[in-house]
């Protein structure tokens, strides 16, 4: 019933495409949450101020995570890529009830870590 890593690695498209998609996906969601959190400041009747501030800060972190993922992918740098993976996990796991965000996050975290291990970690210069 379970599929091996080969299923995640070679299914439908290569790992590098999945890693880039994950960066774009995270950046898109970050911008969406940023706009939504700004709306909370404009129409405060639905949301208390502290919740608007927290959602704005989380949206900024998610947007930065998307930028780090894309930057790490384009520059083939492991540190920003790994930081982007870590930072991009905050909002999806806080939105656990939405189901799709945590599930997509888990799948793309696995594929991005495989991409890192295969492409970035193995090609890092030796010290």
TrEMBL record:
Top-level taxon of origin: Eukaryota
Segments traversing the membrane: 20-42, 49-74, 86-110
Keywords, sorted A to Z: Membrane, Transmembrane, Transmembrane helix
Protein's UniProt name: Uncharacterized protein
Species whose genome carries this gene: Drosophila virilis (Fruit fly)
């Amino acid at each position: 019933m379970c599929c091996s890593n080969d299923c995640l690695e070679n299914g439908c498209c290569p790992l590098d495409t999945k890693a880039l998609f994950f960066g774009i996906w995270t950046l898109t969601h970050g911008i969406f949450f940023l706009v939504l959190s700004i709306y909370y400041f404009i129409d405060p009747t639905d949301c208390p101020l502290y919740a608007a501030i927290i959602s704005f800060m989380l949206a900024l972190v998610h947007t930065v995570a998307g930028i780090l993922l894309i930057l790490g992918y384009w520059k083939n740098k492991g540190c920003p890529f790994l930081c982007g993976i870590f930072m991009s996990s905050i909002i999806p796991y806080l939105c656990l009830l939405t189901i799709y965000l945590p599930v997509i996050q888990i799948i793309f975290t696995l594929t991005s870590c495989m991409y890192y291990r295969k492409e970035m970690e193995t090609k890092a210069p030796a010290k």
